[in-house]
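agent: user wants the structure for ABC transporter ATP-binding protein from Acetobacter persici. delegating to structure tool.
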Amino acid sequence: MDTRIAGPLLELNKAVPSFEESGLPPVPFSMKLMPGDCMVVEARSTSRATMFADLCCGLVPLDDGAVRFMGLDWADLHDRELNALRGRIGRMTRRASWPEFLNTHLAITLQQLHHTSRPLDEIVAEAARLGELFGLPGLPVLRPSMLSDVDLLRAGCVRAFLGRPRLLLLEDPLEGSPVDLQNPFLSAITDARDRGAGVIWLVRNNAIWQGYRQGITSIWRLADDGLVEIRTA
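agent: tool returned. relaying tokens verbatim.
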């Protein structure tokens, strides 16, 4: 698949999400995320934030409109194309996402193993480098339930940035995080943007992302009346 795009990296074009499938307001959602952008979306409901991220990934049925990633309409794609595109998305989600039947190192690498054709050794080596960046001594091999909340947060950062994603969907990633994680996290966002990635940072309040405020390109609010832009840089 040719991954070069001309125009928005992610575009919601009057996309009306199915309320029954998502709980999102059934109103037109419109926005454009360009390569290198970092957009903050304020959402007080964590479940609504997660469903909005699902909408961006083409996982929410639409009653009208379109969602396009890298110039391609999710609704037009078949399984192989869907897998390839989702392999270019990194996520940190509030939804329970650590399967207990897998040790943590396998859960970290699962997305890349499923959605890409990269060799296992290459994926593991990159994950180990990211683990050190985010403060882990290596890839954790214990089951997720045996790790502390802080180490799971670090592992979530590794999983999100693994594979040099083109789109990062990050749900309140710094809330409750230790100070020593915040600078590596912000540096990883900047490096990803320098490579042309776009970032959607979903937050519940104004305090979490203030340290990166100068890097934010736009601020939006997700509420009962849909997605509303409240500031553009």
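agent: one observation worth passing along. The chain has a mean pLDDT of 90.
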